[in-house]
Design a protein that fits this description.
It catalyses: N(6)-[(R)-dihydrolipoyl]-L-lysyl-[protein] + acetyl-CoA = N(6)-[(R)-S(8)-acetyldihydrolipoyl]-L-lysyl-[protein] + CoA. With 424 residues, the chain is of the alpha+beta class. Helix content is 30%, strand content 25%. The termini are far apart.
């Protein structure tokens, strides 16, 4: 009996998944537990396993297609088994259409497009107003390449640069027969210095992760009343301490590791900052779990260091290194990004001196960390070299008031300017 393979729920916030890759083809034999596909969710790329043995009778979606939870993606059964009823049910319920049907539909649409475009050269040119397909109808040439829609589509499909095609239509407009008769050998070898080329826009599919980031940050920005406070910190002592620690530490400690540790210690002293808003109540978290923002191509991931305040610098450095590598390789599991009570976002390595960050819900605050700057400072009436760093705390005003945020920042500043307490 044929078995439906449906899009599973691979994360707690997942609403749909995108087939990143198929690991099988139609006709392949699979066993229970085999991974047949990789699915891009809102948090990571996950594997889809089958629970039944059999033959892959039908793959209903292509790589790159988005499928809602419970949507049919494949059918497994005995070789030669009739699954027409399953395919009909999938189509009638709005599921993914059969690839052969899709090709037939595309072919029909193409025929319609070609039929409607046969006389377009005459229809889109008006003897009074001139080229109706250009924005400046009846106006002087604005430098754009004039071509009919059909000719543009044909050129795109064949990889022809319209700048190399001579137009035979009205006012030098490129039409269908110009593309059909185009010979690459006749293309000009060099463009005129004054000539300009109209470049096509590029569209990029929005990944599930980017969709989720957009939704969550929009909700955070417009539902949580943000306010910001910035403080400047003397990092000279941290600079010297880190150098000495790395001479004896097994795991190399970064400046961000020290900031994370200092934040965790400060959160223990200011529990209101370590809280979340839940409508009719504020939850003050018992654990201190600091998330670290990691930038990847699709956006930001926020792996979490659990019980950060109870761990030493060396352990934080080791865990942070592993989590960051997993984030960059898209290997983070959903549970490694859950349960944060505070977030640190650091752009100092890119030379950014100061910025504001959007709160990572359901956190009450997020700390934006800038670069360590070398600049002259005044100490005991003398100008000496100094190392300074600005941090900006974004706070949810429903939970944290200005004075509370200021006290937290001053505690953090004190800890970073006297880092010996962090290693004791």
């Amino acid at each position: 009996m044929a078995v439906k393979v449906e899009m599973p729920k691979l994360s707690d916030t997942m609403e749909e998944g995108v087939i990143a890759a198929w690991n099988v083809e139609e006709g392949d034999t699979v066993e229970s537990g085999d991974v047949i596909a990789e699915v891009e969710t809102d948090k990571a790329t996950m594997e889809v396993e089958v629970f039944d043995a059999g033959t892959i009778l039908k793959i209903l979606v292509n790589e790159g297609d988005a499928v809602p939870l419970g949507g049919l993606i494949a059918v497994i059964g005995e070789e030669g088994e009739d699954i027409s009823d399953i395919l009909e049910e999938a189509q009638s319920s709005g599921g993914s259409e059969d690839s052969s049907d899709k090709e037939e539909t595309d072919e029909k649409e193409k025929e319609v497009d070609e039929a409607s475009g046969q006389d377009e050269e005459q229809e889109s040119y008006d003897p009074v107003f001139g080229d109706l397909d250009e924005k400046g109808n009846g106006q002087p040439d604005d430098g754009r390449i004039k071509a009919s829609p059909l000719a543009r589509n044909m050129a795109k499909e064949q990889g022809i640069n319209l700048a190399n095609v001579d137009g035979s239509g009205p006012h030098g407009r490129i039409i269908k027969r110009d593309i059909e008769s185009y010979e690459p050998s006749k293309a000009p070898t060099a463009a005129s210095p004054a000539a300009t080329v109209s470049r096509e826009d590029k569209e990029h599919r929005v990944s599930q992760m980017r969709k989720t980031i957009a939704r969550r940050l929009s909700e955070s920005k417009f539902s949580s009343p943000h306010f910001y406070e910035t403080i400047d910190i003397d990092m000279s002592a941290v600079w010297d301490a880190r150098k000495k620690l790395n001479e004896i530490s097994e795991s190399k400690i970064s400046f961000n590791d020290i900031v994370v540790k200092a934040c965790a210690a400060a959160l223990r002293q200011h529990p209101q900052v370590n809280s979340s808003w839940h409508g009719d109540k504020i939850v003050e978290h018992g654990d201190v779990n600091v998330a670290v923002a990691v930038g990847i191509d699709e956006g930001l991931l926020t792996p979490v260091i659990d019980n950060t305040d109870q761990k030493g610098l060396q352990q934080i450095a080791a865990e942070s290194k592993v989590l960051i590598e997993k984030a960059q390789n898209r290997d983070l599991q959903p549970e490694e990004m859950e349960g944060s009570t505070f977030t640190v976002s650091n752009l100092g390595m890119f030379g950014i001196e100061e910025f504001t960050a959007i709160i990572n819900p359901p956190n009450a605050c997020i700390l934006a960390v800038g670069a360590i700057r070398e600049e002259p400072v005044v100490e005991d009436g003398e100008v000496v070299p100094g190392k300074r760093m600005k941090v900006t705390l974004s706070s949810d005003h429903r939970i944290v008031d200005g004075v509370v945020a200021a006290k937290f920042l001053n505690t953090l500043k004190s800890m970073l300017e006297n880092p010996l307490g962090l290693v004791l």
